[in-house]
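Need residues for this backbone.
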């Protein structure tokens, strides 16, 4: 889930964020479990396959895929941030998974042999790559002919109250200039066909795009939601650092009030929309 990038400032931000992703990893795994399932389905991942997870963050969807491919299959979890890779490896050891390996690397320079993997996935990471085209070409290079690449990205901010409620409240306290549509950011590929066109340009065939709607759910309260959101987002942490203690308390209260409807029985449940793009490496014609 973290970006495979080389910019030292951004990498440092993600190093600082890694401990919070580790802290909240169980909640995050539950939240995005439906997204993991659709990636597995679209990529055609099954028992005995070899799979690469690019920008796998603290271990998902790699760990779930490792359980799916079984002992005859293998998964490699990669991330640009060493602390994320270490967290993922620790969780795999805790679960007793032995069919998964780990590698710190960036997406546009994958240290794997060409034509060696049945499938390559990236869940909520490609939006942050400095050069998505180069990264997708690398993902296709390491895939076997006929192998799938499957990518998940956020749909529009206004379709996702999980993100927009906090950003709307924060905008009352800290100015947030609009992001460059092509710069690395969470909502870089919200335009229909934008990511799919890059996949095609990279050389993928049979490219398919779908909108995926689900509920971001987890057994946490509104207070716990605020803690998770305010800790796992480096952008939000930076903005909060500019506020006084009283202002931070007001932001927290306003967020709790605005999100109230999404915590029935004190359990988190946000409607969410993502975009899934899947393509295949063309088979060699002899």
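Answer:
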């Amino acid at each position: 889930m973290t970006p495979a990038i080389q910019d030292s400032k951004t990498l440092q931000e993600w190093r600082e964020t890694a401990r919070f992703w580790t802290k909240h990893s169980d909640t995050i795994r539950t939240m995005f479990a439906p997204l993991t399932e659709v990636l597995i389905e679209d990529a055609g991942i099954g028992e005995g396959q070899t799979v690469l997870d690019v920008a796998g963050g603290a271990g998902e969807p790699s760990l779930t895929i490792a359980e799916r491919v079984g002992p005859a299959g293998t998964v490699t979890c990669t991330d640009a941030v060493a602390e994320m890779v270490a967290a993922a490896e620790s969780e795999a050891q805790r679960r007793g998974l032995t069919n998964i390996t780990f590698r710190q690397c960036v997406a546009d320079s994958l240290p794997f042999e060409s034509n060696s993997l049945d499938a390559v996935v990236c869940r909520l990471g490609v939006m942050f790559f400095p050069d998505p085209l180069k990264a997708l070409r690398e993902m296709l290079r390491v895939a076997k002919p006929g192998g799938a690449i499957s990518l998940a990205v956020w749909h529009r901010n206004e379709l996702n109250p999980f993100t927009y409620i906090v950003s709307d409240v924060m905008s009352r306290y800290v100015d947030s200039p609009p992001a460059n549509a092509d710069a690395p950011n969470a909502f870089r590929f919200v335009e229909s066909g934008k990511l799919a066109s890059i996949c095609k340009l990279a050389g993928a065939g049979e490219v398919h795009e779908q909108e995926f709607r689900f509920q971001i759910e987890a057994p946490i309260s509104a207070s716990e939601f605020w803690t998770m959101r305010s800790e796992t987002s480096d952008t939000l942490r930076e903005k909060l650092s500019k506020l006084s203690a009283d202002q931070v308390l007001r932001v927290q209260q306003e967020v709790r009030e605005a999100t109230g409807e999404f915590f029935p029985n004190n359990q988190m449940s946000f409607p969410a929309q993502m975009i899934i793009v899947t393509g295949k490496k063309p088979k060699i014609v002899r």
